[in-house]
Amino acid sequence: MFCINPSIYTLSFNSSVDYTFYLSRKINFDDINRIDRTRVDAGGKGLNVARMLTVLGCRAEAITFLGGGNGNILKNFLEAEKIKYRYVNTRDSTRSIFNFICGEKTLRFNEKGPVVSGKEKKEFLTLVDSLKMKKGDVLSISGSLPPGVEKSIYAGIIAGARSKGAVVALDADGEALTEGIRGVPHIIKPNLWELGRIAGGRIGSPEMLERILCKLSDRGISIILLTLGEKGAILFSGRKFLYAPSPAVKARSTIGCGDTFLSGFLCGFSRNQPLEECLRLAVACGTAKVVREGTSMPNRREVAAILLKVKLQKISAGTLSSFF
């Protein structure tokens, strides 16, 4: 499964420019809300994964759509961070995401994204198909799909990457995740709410969670990473559970934490590290991101300091009740 110098490609159909507004007082509807300060960051799950992988020293390349003024802003961000990327230009502008942060509360507004034409979609698929993926490389597919792109598109891309010998990770929600699973990715990274949505309802017990995870495993998904926010994450593989609590930190922004978590896992996985160490690095990256504002990425020193504090616990389905 592994190669000496693997490449990790990150696929992002719906990248964004994230605008974050900080307010010192709670948001009042039907009245003026005064913004204390503003920051602008690169956004979109796939781009965030590539950004963190690059920080970790992995051979990462982002594949995305870019268009309009926001597309140009993203190019500048990616080039400043020395992120390797390829893109298809869209006539419509790349979307904006607006985050309003007041104390520990965040209010988010996400645009749908550019309307992608048939020609643009075909060009994107041609670009993905042209990637020289080999056995042991990784394709990470993340995020939502913009208007004009059907939800079933992930399954075909996953099947194509698998046929080349690549390991495929999928991080999506709703119908995009449900349809993507049909292509049988090796790795998926839902949270409890996302897992419940594809299972048809809220997950209310450890027994229900174990049944769902076993069904996904039986379909050929080798590794399921279940993120639990400030409680850490669970890895389910081979009918066994691993749990890594998150070290306590003072949170500044949870935006992009799941993306950095996935980056940490894929970095370790691509380097043939044991799953236990991959999970530890994932939790360290996700936790290190929490103390950063906006979608700014933590550096290696910050990740290494938190990694020393991440301890694993072997758990069983019967001990999962504290997560519900």
Descriptive overview:
This protein has 324 residues and is an alpha/beta fold. The chain has a single domain, classed as UDP-N-acetylmuramoyl-L-alanine:D-glutamate ligase (3-Layer(aba) Sandwich). Helix content is 35%, strand content 24%. The chain is built from ten helices and 14 strands. The chain has helices spanning 45-55, 68-80, 118-130, 153-163, 174-181, 192-199, 206-218, 257-270, 275-290, 300-307, and strands at 7-12, 16-23, 37-43, 59-66, 85-89, 95-102, 105-110, 138-142, 167-171, 187-188, 223-227, 233-237, 240-244, 313-315. It has a ten-stranded mixed β-sheet, sandwiched between helices. It has a four-stranded mixed β-sheet with strand order 3-2-6-7. Strand 12 (233-237) and strand 13 form a beta hairpin. The protein is globular. It starts with 6 loop residues before the first strand and ends in a 9-residue tail after the last strand. The mean pLDDT is 93.
Keywords:
324 residues; alpha/beta; UDP-N-acetylmuramoyl-L-alanine:D-glutamate ligase; 10-stranded mixed β-sheet; 4-stranded mixed β-sheet; 14 strands
How are the SSEs ordered, and which strands pair?
Blueprint: E1 7-12, E2 16-23, E3 37-43, H1 45-55, E4 59-66, H2 68-80, E5 85-89, E6 95-102, E7 105-110, H3 118-130, E8 138-142, H4 153-163, E9 167-171, H5 174-181, E10 187-188, H6 192-199, H7 206-218, E11 223-227, E12 233-237, E13 240-244, H8 257-270, H9 275-290, H10 300-307, E14 313-315
Parallel strand pairs: 1-4, 1-8, 2-6, 4-5, 8-9, 9-10, 10-11
Antiparallel strand pairs: 2-3, 6-7, 11-12, 12-13, 13-14
Helix pairs in contact: 1-8, 4-5, 8-9, 9-10
